[in-house]
Design goal:
The protein is of the alpha+beta class. The chain has helices at 11-14, 19-27, 42-52, 72-80, 84-92, 109-112, 120-124, 127-151, 164-171, 202-205, and strands at residues 64-69, 95-102, 155-159, 177-186. This is Malonic semialdehyde reductase.
C-alpha cells in the first residue's frame, strides 16, 4: 500500500462555503460546557430541525425523533437519568434535546418515500432490519442536528452518558422511540475550558485506492 504524502492546499478555494461559515460550522466550533445567559426560542429550534431534516437518510426514512426539554420539571426528570459527570451540564444548558430513533419508520413510507410505500409490509415482518436502519440513520441525523445547531449560532454538547431505559420510561413511554443521545444546546459563553483535542490528519485516516 502506498501512503500518499499530504500536500499543502488552500482550503477556502476548495469550499463553496465562505471562510466565516466554515469556521462557524467546523473549524472554530467547539463543544460547550458553559453558556451565555440567553434563552433559545421555539423559532430557533424550528430552524435547527428544518436544516436537520434535509440531510439524506437511506430510503428517506428519517427515523430521528426529538424531545425538547424546556420545562424545569422535564429537566429534573432527565437529570435523574444522566451519568454523574453530565448532571451539572444538563442542568446548566439553556436547552436540552433528547434524540431518539423509531423502528416504526416503515409506517410512514407513504409520506416519506411514496414510490416505495409498497415495501412497508415487508419491513413490518423484519424487525431486525428496521432496527438496524433506524439506528444507523438516526445517528447520521444526529450529526446533521449538531451542524444545524451550529448554523443557528448555537453550541452543541452531545452526550451518551445516561440511563437510556430510564429516559425512555419518562419521555418515550407508549411509543416506538428509543433514546440514544442527549444534546445540550445554547449560545456559548466564550469560555474555553480546555484546548481542542487533536484530529487525525488526512494520511492517517484515509486511503486512495
Amino acid at each position: 500500500m502506498t501512503i500518499e504524502i499530504t500536500r499543502e492546499f488552500d482550503l477556502d478555494s476548495e469550499l463553496i462555503l465562505d471562510s466565516d461559515a466554515a469556521a462557524a460550522l467546523f473549524l472554530e466550533a467547539r463543544t460547550a460546557n458553559s453558556w451565555a445567559d440567553e434563552q433559545i426560542s421555539d423559532e430557533t429550534l424550528q430552524a435547527v430541525y428544518t436544516l436537520t431534516k434535509m440531510g439524506p437518510t437511506a430510503m428517506n426514512i428519517q427515523p430521528l425523533r426529538i424531545a425538547w426539554i424546556r420545562s424545569s420539571e422535564a429537566r429534573a426528570q432527565l437529570v435523574e437519568h444522566m451519568n454523574e459527570g453530565n448532571k451539572v451540564k444538563t442542568l446548566a444548558a439553556p436547552m436540552v434535546a433528547v434524540l431518539s430513533y423509531t423502528n416504526e419508520w416503515h409506517n410512514l413510507l407513504e409520506r416519506t418515500t411514496p414510490h416505495m410505500a409498497s415495501m412497508a409490509p415487508t419491513f413490518e415482518k423484519n424487525l431486525d432490519s428496521r432496527n438496524t436502519m433506524a439506528v444507523t440513520n438516526a445517528h447520521m441525523q444526529a450529526g446533521y442536528f449538531i451542524l444545524a445547531a451550529r448554523a443557528a449560532g448555537l453550541a452543541a454538547g452531545p452526550m451518551t452518558g445516561f440511563d437510556a431505559s430510564g429516559v425512555d420510561a419518562h419521555f418515550n413511554a407508549n411509543t416506538s422511540y428509543s433514546a440514544f443521545m442527549v444534546v445540550n444546546l445554547g449560545k456559548p459563553s466564550g469560555v474555553i475550558d480546555r484546548q481542542r483535542l487533536p484530529r487525525l490528519d488526512f494520511d492517517s485516516a484515509t486511503v486512495t485506492l
